Automatic annotation (TrEMBL):
Residues 4-63 form the Conserved virulence factor B first S1 domain. This is GntR family transcriptional regulator. Coiled coil: none annotated. The lineage of its organism: Bacteria, Pseudomonadati, Pseudomonadota, Gammaproteobacteria, Thiotrichales. Belongs to the CvfB family. Pfam families: S1_2 (PF13509), WHD_CvfB (PF17783). Residues 219-276 form the Conserved virulence factor B-like winged helix domain. InterPro entries: CvfB_fam, CvfB_S1_st, CvfB_WH, NA-bd_OB-fold, WH-like_DNA-bd_sf. It comes from the Bacteria.
């Protein structure tokens, strides 16, 4: 299925003087203008192409890659403001529209803003929005864990600290008293999930804790074994739900911890159980 605003792998169906037509499936043929056609391309070749709408709202392909794609966030500069909204430079000939009702505050030419990109359901046009809270989750889901490394994009400040986009999916907070350098909007950096509050809100830190999630889990596993006669039936083959009930971690992290303990010769592993080694 064709994905507007994303890279699609499409096959050449027809060659014309002004470019190539690509097979867009149910969307029909899509033009790849001549200036973007790779040298030597022929009918039936496959190409990786970015799909968007041209100035007449027709689907069009390009070999160029924009600065941001649909469902991603980026820090982009306003190049013009018109009666329909602000337009951002995103690396393609047709600038990216931010309608007025998608602006958290009125945008100004020459200034840059953190935006999230989506496809407007009514028009099929690719648009951007600085109303991040309307598109990104402020409460953690199952794919985030304390200690997890994440990619951050600083989006602004509050009295408490710096707001950050997490992996293009979430919004979190870095407390000001834990940051010892300036973090202007648009700063991209790696961080870590520090804490997930009872209400699901996400606190972040810029440095890994002294003990990683796996290292802390190793300590918990050893203590649990010592408290239960040195044996546990919770192995790397156990259901994820059982592992989470005992340790509140993913099965992947549990397996990493078991593997590390086994390599350190602190535990023995069989299909039926894990147990403390003689050294423990």
């Amino acid at each position: 299925m064709l994905e507007i605003g994303r890279i699609n792998r499409l096959q050449v169906t027809k060659q014309v003087t002004f470019g190539l037509y690509m097979d867009g499936g149910e969307a029909g043929e899509i033009l790849l203008p001549k200036r973007y056609v790779p040298e030597g391309t022929i009918v039936q070749d496959w190409l990786d192409l970015f799909i968007y709408l041209d100035s007449e709202d027709r689907l069009i392909a390009t070999t160029e890659t924009p600065k941001v794609m649909v469902d991603e966030c980026a820090y982009l500069k306003v190049v013009s403001v018109t009666p329909v909204g602000a337009f951002l430079d995103w690396g393609l000939p047709k600038d990216l529209l931010v309608p007025f009702n998608e602006q958290d505050r009125p945008m100004e030419v020459g200034k840059s803003y953190v935006v999230v990109v989506s496809v407007d359901d009514a028009t099929n046009r690719i648009i951007a929005s600085s109303r991040l809270y309307d598109y990104l989750d402020e409460e953690a889901d199952d794919d985030l864990e304390v200690g997890q490394q994440v990619e951050l994009l600083i989006s602004g400040q509050t009295d408490l600290g710096y707001k950050a986009v997490i992996n293009h999916d979430y919004l979190g907070l870095i407390f000001r008293n834990e940051v010892f350098r300036d973090l202007p909007p648009g700063t991209e950096l790696t961080g870590f999930v520090k804490h997930i509050r009872d209400d699901g809100k996400i606190d972040l830190r810029l440095e890994a804790s002294k003990k990683t999630v796996v290292e802390m889990l190793e300590d918990k596993i050893l203590q649990q074994l010592k408290n239960n006669g040195g044996v546990s039936q919770l192995t790397d083959k156990s259901p994820p739900e059982a592992i989470y009930r005992s340790y509140e971690v993913s099965k992947a992290n549990y397996k990493r911890a078991l593997s590390s303990l086994y390599k350190q010769r602190k535990i023995l592993i069989t299909h039926e159980q894990i147990s403390l080694s003689d050294s423990e």
